[in-house]
Structure formats: structure tokens, C-alpha cells
């Protein structure tokens, strides 16, 4: 293995050691299920010790191994995966403050912990195998240089098997030579060559130390089958001199040649200073085959590329970590172009905005919704895949601690869910681990039909509610362990409920009775009760069951959403109709215009999705069309955020018409950016015409000074632009009006390279001031884009002036050269028309 790969492996092992130690420390702080956790902690401890031993083997100069780098990296990677899975599962179970819920979740995840325990044990066995292979190969490497040692050892093994140990051996007992690392040293002389070997043997049952002198005494008392010569046997039988019982210092090149055999005076060695330079000249090697014989002049300098490769290995092995991992975001308004492109599913415009620097993949609204949140909620699969590919953060949470995958999961469980929503969920997560973050109760699971595959009983919602009622009716001092035995072979949902009651009773020993209201308990992510989820998934039958058994229909989530909001989330008509029926009976407790944390009513949410039937039901029930949310937008603004189509036009028609008994609609309601609703319908001429017919004004402009024509030119809506110019003749004022950047609609069309819109405007006589920001005129933009048709329109227009320069002194000729268009017809036209004379 090359040194660079070794550095990467060592760094990976170091990171794995740190991770395993962190998990072990976390395990020691946990108190629930101590017996089961102690077994798991013991396995992690053994894994950590085995990992340390393997780390020592890799770092040792004396150790030899031929285990491939790929196998080692795979083993370390699998170990990382197991440790991370264990850490993640422990965090999921023990992040809940309620001990009863913790114990309940422990029962749910017990099988998973058992599987992880088995995986950790298999990793330990694998590490032990690696260490054993390394020791064996090291021994074989030593014997390769001295075949006599292998022969002598094989002879000793035969004799040790055939003959018992002689108790009269002059060697002292092992207890007189304690050693922390169970090490032994042996020194022998074979064929005139002194050989010293040091090895370490660690075992759970004990340590065995052997000496060559004892082996020679066995050999004298038995018939040896070895092939040693008489001179070698004589040397083996001779007494070992005291001066030869030293540990030979190995050469840095792991060679064992005569030139490196030196005896050291141990008495004087202890008196010398540790940091003392050795003035003696280095003993040069006399053996030509020895690696130490290579002179320093033959060694080349280490190239810089090796250092770069080593650093890349260190970074990839996570051995170098950033001290503070701060996520940075680009805060944008809710109505930004990037957000609008994502909501509309306009991927091409989004890509163009990101590539031009107008937007970034990390754009985030003030409420914490990133582009990825918006794409997941709007069910835009292609946009989600694009943003994830760009590296958008999938773990970012909004104000309600909801990640993009949570919004995707919500849509995948809705009444109108299709395969598309499930595919979006798969983009974020390949497994179902994210469901554990919700902390669903058994009642939630029955409502959402999230039974485990191993649960063959799958108890119905009514049976689970009845079982909870029976547990609540149990007298004080109930032996819940007896209940667990009784339901041991039943559905795990029963055991989960029993464990929650048992844990609560164990914690509150003074309490006379344990009561749990699981029917109204909220989940951890959306803070929805089972009734909310039944409403969102369109299960009116289960809503009736919950209401019948005492569920509270007036509970709101942490984001102030009620069951009407939940029904509109997924266009669940039956659930919405049942919720509105409850509203009609209890209008003071269930508000049809209830605003969530963003100020959105149910009607706004229905308008954004163009859920025509939901909008109709809400308007007929008396929903207010003029309710404003936090950005001062009304339901019409939200309808403009949806995709174009017939349902969008029907939604606009319903909002404009009302139910006849409501107050008149404020059709020109401007939001905090002074954008009226018509600005959000620029891609749909039918909706624009409908709003104009109901009195929408065309002369409004936003805070940036952009009017209707500015926005049409910015977004490149040439068809709508041409139609408006033909239908309404009083558009001259809008044509010459400038925004705060000093640009007319024509200049904005040129700035955004919307050639069709520019050509349409150049067909009119009065286009206003022909010079925009930075002194750029239409002739400069045409030269920059290199469009012949546009250039001819500009040159033939009455507003064209020869020799115009920008604020930095550039003529159209220079602009064309900078853009690489000073050739062909562009060059000819500019030379002909733009000359001073």
C-alpha cells in the first residue's frame, strides 16, 4: 500500500474511533432500558478496542500485511455506516423529553437495535481477522529472511504437542515477569547470525510466553524429527548468554542484515539525555541486497502532488473538520422571481436566473422556506431534482421545523396524491427513517395506514381507541407487565400503548391513576392530531369515528392551522364538507377564515392550488375573499401563483363573482411590494381579460416603478404584450414611463434579451426615452446580442441617433467587438448606419 493511501486509511480510522467514542459516551448517559443498553454498550466497547488494535497494527513499522486497500476502505466505511445508524436511532428514541414516549419508542426500535448489535459484533470479528492476518504475515516475513527460524518453530510445536511441559524447567514462573502488553522476547543464534524477535499476544484467556532455551531442553529429552545440523543443535543446546538477552532495535527499513546488528550498553543508556545528538558516523550497510544500502543521493524529492493527494485523502476521511458549521442563506422576499418560477414549475427560467446570478439554490424566504421547500410543496419533481443536484440543503427547517422531505411526505399522503408525490419523497430519502421523526402514536398510524410489514393483525382505529379506553379505565396499581405478557403475540401497536402506560406509572409512583389522551395527541413535525391527518388524507369516515369517540375538532397546530386548512391541503372534498358542517354548528369555535402563522386562510390555500371545488365550497360557506396575509396579499394573488389552465380561470371567475351576499372584492388590492393581482397573471391573457372586465386598473406600478408593460417585457410575454397593445389604445403613457432604474419597457426587454418583446415595441412610433441606465441605448443592446433583425429595427426607428456612446464612452462598434459580433452583416449595418458622416 502506498503511503498516501495509508495516510487516508489512518485518518478514516481516527474519525471512526472518534465517532464510536461519541456513541459510547452517549450510551453511558442514557437511563431507560439499562439492561438492553448495557449489552449494546459492551459491544460498542469491544468494537472500539478492536479498532484501536487494528490502528496500532497499521501504524507499526514492524507489521506487514497484504490486505488490499479496497477491502480495508470498505470495512471502515461499513463501520462508519453502522455507527452513524446507531447514533441516529439513539437520537430518534431519546430526543423526546417525555420518558413514557421514550420507552414506547424503545420498544418500537428494539429489533433495530438488536440488528445493529449483530452488525457491530460482525465488525469486531472482521477487525480481529485483519489483525490476525497482519500478525501471521509479519511472522512469515521474518521467517522468509531466516528459514531456520520457521524450521525450529515447527519442530518446537511438534514437541510441545507430543510432550508435556517439564515442571523442572529452570525458567521462572510467568507471574514473576508481569507485562502490561503481554509481550515476550526471544533471542537465538542460528548459523552464526543473531536473530531477535519481539511479538505481542493478547488473549481473553491469558498469555503464553515461550523461550528458546526451554524448547532446547524439550528437544534433548525427546527424539527430534527436525533436520538441523549438529552445529546448530549445539548452538541451541548451549546456555543463552546474559548479554544476548536484549531487544534488538529494528532497522527503519525492516531489514535484518548483519550490518545493523549492534549491542547497546543498557547501563550507560539510562544515564544519557533523551535529546542528545549522536555524533557517531552512521554505520553503512555492507550487504548489497539491503534496502539501507541505498544512498541519500539516489532518493528523489517528494513531489507536491503527493502532498495534495494526502490532503485530499484527509479531507475525504473527515479527519479535518470545520469547527463551526454555519449555514448561509440568501434571504429573498416571498414574491421574488425565483420563488415564482418554482411555484409555477418554470424550470428553464429558474435555471437562467441561477446561472445569471439573479438567484441561488439557497434562496430562502423570511419564513424559512427555501426554494427546495417550495418545490416540494408545489409538487415540482424536475425542480426538486435540479436543486438537489446543485447542492441545495435538504436538512434546512422552516419556522415549523419542517424539512423539504416533510412537505413532500404530506403531499404523498394527501387525498389527491399520485406517484409523482412519492417520487419526490424518494429524491430526499431512500428509506423510511424520516417517518420516525414524526413520533406518530398508534392512533396516527391507524389513521395513516402506516402499519409495519410484520404486523399481520393491523388493528382498526376503533379497536385501538377501545384498547386505549380500557387502559385508561384500568385501576391504580395495575400490573402493566401482565398486560404485556397477554398481548405479547399481538400487534406491536398494543405493546406500544401498554409500554407508554407502564413507563408513566413507573415514573409517577405517587399518582393514583394513569390516563393518556392519545386521540388528541399531536405529532412532532406538523403538530397535527389524528383528526387533522384524517382530514388531510380525505378520510371523512375516520373523522366521524374520532369525533364520535371524543376527539376535539377545534385544536390548532403550532402554525395555527385547523382541520379546514388540513382538508384544503390535499383537496379533500369530503373532509372539507364535513369540517364545514362542524363550522356551521360551532362558528365561534371553528373559524372558516382562521389565519395560520403566515396569515393564510383556507380560501387562499385553495386558490393557490386552483382547487375549484374547494374554492366553491368555501365561498358558499361565507369565506372572506378580501382577507390579507402577512405580505398583504389576497386570495387573487394566490391564484396567480398557480399554473395556467382552465382550473385557474375557473378559480379567478369564482373569486371575482363571489356568492352574492359578500362584500365587493378589492380587485386591485396591492401587496407590500405594491403589486396588484393582475401582475401575477401576465402569462394568461384570459385571466387578465377577466380581471380587466371586473375593473382591474392597468396604470398601477410596484415599488420598483415597474408597470404592467415593464413586467410583460421582463418576463418575455410577447403574446400578451401584443394583445394588450392592440386591444387598448391608451397605452402610450405606460410605454414612455420609466422605472426607478431609469428604464422604459423597451429597455427592460433589451436588458433581459427578450427580442420578440423589443421588436413588438419598436413597431410603435413613440417608445419613450431611448437611453436607459448606464447610457445604454437600443443600438448598444442590439450590437451586444448580435441579432440582425433587432438591429435593423433599431436602425430604422425614428428614435435612432448616430454616434451614441454609453456612460463609459463605448460606441456600438466597440460593444459589438467586445461581444465578438463585429463581423458579417452586423459589421456592415453598423458601418453603414452608425457612421458619424
Automatic annotation (TrEMBL):
UniProt keyword annotations, A-Z: ANK repeat, Repeat
Renumbered residue ranges of the record's region Disordered: 208-228
Top-rank lineage group of the source organism: Eukaryota
A Pfam family that the UniProt record links to this protein: Ank_2
ANK repeats: 367-399, 526-558, 598-630, 774-799
Chain segments annotated as coiled-coil in the UniProt record: none
PANTHER family: ANKYRIN REPEAT AND PROTEIN KINASE DOMAIN-CONTAINING PROTEIN, ANKYRIN REPEAT-CONTAINING PROTEIN-RELATED
Designated name of the protein: Ankyrin repeat protein
Organism the protein comes from: Talaromyces proteolyticus
